[in-house]
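Sample entry (75 residues):
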Amino acid sequence: MATISLISGFLGIVCLVPLLGSVVALIAGHAARRQIEVHRERGRERADLGIMLGWVGLVVVIAASIAAIIIVVLS
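Predicted structure, serialized as tokens:
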């Protein structure tokens, strides 16, 4: 789950589906953190990085959407 979170977060930033990648990164990252805590597994850093990339991607999507709306309204 941690690896899925990391890959989704990365793809959410660099690919054409940033919203989907970011949401998957956040969900998988939080699920991985719970799983790591319960089963005492490794991968906490990957899960945390995936969560961070998910939030960055989400902020970029929101900022781009607001910028597009402002541009359309002011045109």
